[in-house]
Amino acid sequence: MRPYQRQIAERIAEIVDPGDLDLSSLFSVPPDSTLGDLAFPCFQLARTLKEAPPRIAERIAEAAWEFPWLAEVVAAGPYVNFLYDSGAFSRDVLARVIAAGEAFGTSDVGEGKTVVVEFSSPNIAKHLAVHHLRSTMLGQVMVNLLRASGYSVVALNHLGDWGTNFGKLLAAWERYGEEEGLEDSLIETSDDPVALFNKLYVRINSEIETDPQLEETARAWFRKLEAGDPVARERWQRIRDVSWARFEKVYKRLGVSFDEVIGESFYEDKMPEIIDELAKTGLLVESEGAEVVALEEEIPPLLIRKRDGSTLYGTRDLASAEYRWGRWQFSRALYVVDAGQGLHFRQVFGVLRRLGRSYADRLEHTEFGIMRMNVDGQWIKGRTRKGQIVLLEDVLDDATALAREVVLRKNPDLGDSIEEIAEAVGVGAVVFSDMKARRGRDVNFDLEKFLSFEGETGPYLQYTHVRFCGILRKSEIDSSDHGDGSLLVEAEEKALLLCLDRFDTVIARAALEAEPSILSQYLLDLAGEFNAYYAKHRIISDDGDLTRHRLSLIDALRVVLSRGLRILCLEPLERM
């Protein structure tokens, strides 16, 4: 909570007895800035005190208020409005921002609590494609937000490295490996070994359509893999290793990292225990030769084992939830997976509730909408481009190449730094396109629009940061000589300071709601407020004292925008 709200809440509690009421959660911003900077509604106090809200507001406003940063306290019907003293408020906010630096906005809201965030979770033997972008980036930013709010966070990649599909791939290796040239050296030294496995997988699926017996061959290979056959395990491990190496290259470009990478295969020896428990409790029943757990009427049963005894995603998700609870005792566990998997998670969570797992209510399907691509003028789900997978690294390459053109048109004198800047702008544009919208909404991927320096884009925010850095360089005044902000009395300056002051609450709210767009919209508002101010007021002027105070404001804005961009996985550039 911001210090002003805390102090006001404590003073109100001295004036009237709130009982068990949490006053700090009741504050709001007046609809008109002329009314004040902070508003306190008295409706809930009225229920506690058995007194009319306007009368309570009058009692609060008429009491003694001796905070030096507070200019006026006024009752307005059932509300109490608080107006800050501009000079004192400016000094305090700027001092806190500059002193904290890149740590500004950090809070202890989540202290002592652990959150597990599962995100990205691609399948091995496949490329990271554009449809992986949303889970990957939303998850990483949620991790950043939660850590900034004081939570202990486990960033987890639940790698898809198990299942009957790998039986098909192993069957294809056995059938076509020599013909396709899968020598030992070729896989590990190939520029794109994943493409070799894609080729095998497509070929075996094509032949299965005309030779159904191959399907049984694939199942037999997966049974060998489950049974620990050395040839199957050795080939599977090589597939996993080269796939992960390929993933890491893309993750590095995106600024994504994980604390744990635990594939589905890890739970192979952990599934029998929970299956046995389902059987002993009578929850596991037979259905058409398979084994299922029945749920509520509107939710279909969860399939636990197929007729042939093989397990499924749901079985492994049950085992993984059990493992995570036993290891981390989490306060929350977020599954950052698209909305299309909603039924699956309702089934998994429902089975855990039927088993009496108290932690089941701490599991959250943090769903998101789809990424749509423009194919022949139609916006479709971002999995195919004329029948081919849209690779995420290709999208990043395209974005970087286009960013290079856009940046060089604006500033042709960047020299050798252009490549680094183009990468930061291009990748940042792609990432921010995913952070701007509420995660539940579908996103249309329009690269040229995302790379615009105008409008609500990543480059627009990065350019605003560049402008802050440029102003500070141009002034040639050392930060130690900046003013304390007491001369910042313009309405636009106060609006900027109020915006800076609520940064920590924005981060805390975004973390609580697992909603990165809250921070994205805040940064867009901050940049918009600044650009409106910049168009009206000169920062560097003939008034040396005012210049130094305004430079302090610019430096604080730079700190907060830089901090926000880094949380969103965008690089805060100094030149562009």
Task: Report on the architecture of this protein.
With 576 residues, the protein is of the alpha/beta class. Among the domains are: 3-84, Gyrase A, domain 2, CATH 3.30.1360; 164-257, no CATH class; 394-567, Isoleucyl-tRNA Synthetase, Domain 1. Helices cover 53% and strands 11% of the residues. It has 21 helices and 16 strands. A five-stranded parallel β-sheet has the order 6-5-4-10-11. α12 (313-328) packs across α13 (342-354). The two termini are 36 Å apart. The model has no long low-confidence stretch (mean pLDDT 92).
Radius of gyration: 28 Å
User: And the CATH topology of the domain at 394-567?
Assistant: Isoleucyl-tRNA Synthetase, Domain 1
Q: Which percent bin holds the helix content?
A: 40-55%
- CATH superfamily annotation of the domain at 394-567: Isoleucyl-tRNA Synthetase, Domain 1
Going by CATH, the architecture of the domain at 394-567 would be: Orthogonal Bundle
**Number of E strands:** 16
The profile of the biggest β sheet is: 5 strands, parallel
Which class do the helix and strand fractions yield? alpha/beta
* Annotation field: number of helices: 21
**Spatial arrangement of strands, main beta sheet:** 6-5-4-10-11
Question: Unreliable runs, pLDDT <50, ≥5 residues?
Answer: none
Overall shape: it is: flat
- Name the average pLDDT: 92
N- to C-terminal distance: 36 Å
What's the level 1 CATH class of the domain at 394-567?
Answer: Mainly Alpha
Percent strand equals 5-15%
